[in-house]
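Progress note, sequence design subtask.
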C-alpha cells in the first residue's frame, strides 16, 4: 500500500518517472553534473521504490540533461544489468520437430499474433511463410538446427546472417556473454511533451521494466527471414543479443506490475521520455478506446501515460509523446539526447 500511494502521488504531481555499444543518444563525454537537495532526495526515494530491489546496480541520482528536442532540464539517472537477476530466461528453440507444448520453445511474432514455437510450428514454417526453402530440421531424425554455441549465435545474430546458419532456429544464452552488459539510463524527472510526436530511436530501446530489463524497439526481422531463420522470444517476450544482453520485444505478464487504481491498467515500466507504461488492458479486461497515435492518453485522474501494444505486434510503443532522454553503456556520461550517434540496438 505504501508503494501504491507513493507511485500515485508521484504520477499526479510531477509525472511518472520514468547496449555493449549503446552510446546511442549522446556524443558528449563531459562528466555528468549531479544535483542534490532534500526535494531531490524524496523524489529519488519514490523512483527507487518503484523498482525491484535487485534491479538497479547503482543509486538513483538527479542530473542535468538535454533531451531529444533540445530541452535542458533535470533527469534521474541509474544503471542496470541487461539480464533478469532472478527469473529464468528461455526456452527459445525446440530441439526436435516432435517436441510439443509451451515448454518446448518460446514464441514467434507475426501479423500481430504470438505463435507458440514448438516442433510442429518449426516443421511447418514452409507452409506458414508459403516458401518451400524453409527447412530448419533434419528429415531423417527430426532434429532442429539450433545455434547451440556462442560462435554460432554470434554468426547468426549478425545483420547479414552467416550463410552457414541459414535455415536455423537462432538462440543465444546469457552464459555466452563474458560479462553482463551494464546500461545507464537518463530519463526526464518531469516529462516534457514534444511539439510533435517524437520518433523512437531503435538503438536506444523504448524504456525499462521495474525488474531492470530493457523494453526494446521492434525486432528487425527482415534479414533473418530472408535467411530462412527465426530467432524466437521466450514466453516473457525476451531474448539475448550477444552484445546487448537480455531484453524484451513484447510486453507480457512477466514484468512486475504496480496497481494505480481499482480499474485502470497496472504500470509495468517507464518510457525513455519519462511517461509511465501500462499494460495493454485494464483490470476488467477491456482496452482503452481513446489512445492517441503513440498509444497514450490521460484518464482516471492519471496524467498522460502509455498502454503497450498487444504482445504479437513486435512494437511495444509506436512513438514518444515527449522528449526522450539517453541510454549509455558507460556511467557518468552527460546526457545530450539531441545528438544521435546511431549505436548498436537490441535485435
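Output:
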Amino acid at each position: 500500500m505504501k508503494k501504491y500511494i507513493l507511485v500515485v502521488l508521484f504520477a499526479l504531481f510531477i509525472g511518472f518517472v520514468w547496449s555493449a555499444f549503446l552510446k546511442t543518444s549522446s556524443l558528449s563525454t563531459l562528466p555528468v553534473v549531479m544535483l542534490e537537495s532534500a526535494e531531490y532526495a524524496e523524489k529519488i526515494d519514490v523512483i527507487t521504490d518503484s523498482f525491484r530491489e535487485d534491479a538497479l546496480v547503482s543509486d538513483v541520482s538527479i542530473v542535468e540533461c538535454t533531451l531529444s528536442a533540445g530541452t535542458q532540464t533535470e533527469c534521474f539517472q541509474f544503471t542496470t544489468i541487461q539480464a533478469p537477476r532472478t527469473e529464468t530466461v528461455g526456452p527459445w528453440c525446440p530441439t526436435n520437430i516432435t517436441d510439443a507444448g509451451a515448454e518446448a520453445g518460446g514464441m514467434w511474432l507475426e501479423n500481430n499474433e504470438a505463435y507458440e514455437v514448438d516442433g510442429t510450428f518449426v516443421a511447418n514454417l514452409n507452409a506458414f511463410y508459403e516458401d518451400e526453402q524453409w527447412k530448419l530440421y533434419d528429415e531423417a531424425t527430426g532434429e532442429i538446427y539450433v545455434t547451440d554455441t556462442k560462435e554460432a549465435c554470434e554468426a547468426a545474430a549478425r545483420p547479414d546472417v552467416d550463410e552457414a546458419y541459414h535455415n536455423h532456429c537462432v538462440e543465444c544464452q546469457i552464459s555466452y556473454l563474458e560479462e553482463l552488459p551494464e546500461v545507464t539510463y537518463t530519463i526526464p524527472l518531469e516529462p516534457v511533451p514534444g511539439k510533435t510526436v517524437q520518433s523512437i530511436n531503435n538503438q536506444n530501446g523504448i524504456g525499462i521494466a521495474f525488474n531492470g530489463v530493457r523494453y526494446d524497439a521492434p525486432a528487425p526481422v527482415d534479414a533473418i527471414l530472408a535467411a530462412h531463420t527465426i530467432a524466437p522470444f521466450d514466453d516473457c517476450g525476451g531474448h539475448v543479443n550477444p552484445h546487448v544482453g537480455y531484453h524484451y520485444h513484447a510486453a507480457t505478464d512477466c514484468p512486475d506490475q504496480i496497481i494505480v487504481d481499482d480499474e485502470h491498467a497496472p504500470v509495468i515500466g517507464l518510457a525513455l521520455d519519462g511517461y509511465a507504461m501500462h499494460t495493454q488492458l485494464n483490470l476488467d479486461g477491456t482496452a482503452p478506446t481513446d489512445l492517441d497515435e503513440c498509444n497514450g492518453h490521460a484518464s482516471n485522474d492519471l496524467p498522460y501515460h502509455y498502454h503497450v501494444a498487444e504482445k504479437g505486434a513486435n512494437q511495444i510503443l509506436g512513438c514518444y509523446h515527449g522528449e526522450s532522454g539517453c541510454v549509455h553503456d558507460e556511467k557518468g556520461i552527460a546526457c545530450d539526447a539531441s545528438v544521435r550517434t546511431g549505436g548498436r540496438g537490441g535485435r
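Confidence is low (pLDDT under 50) at residues 1-31, 341-347. Work on this subtask will continue into the next period as scheduled.
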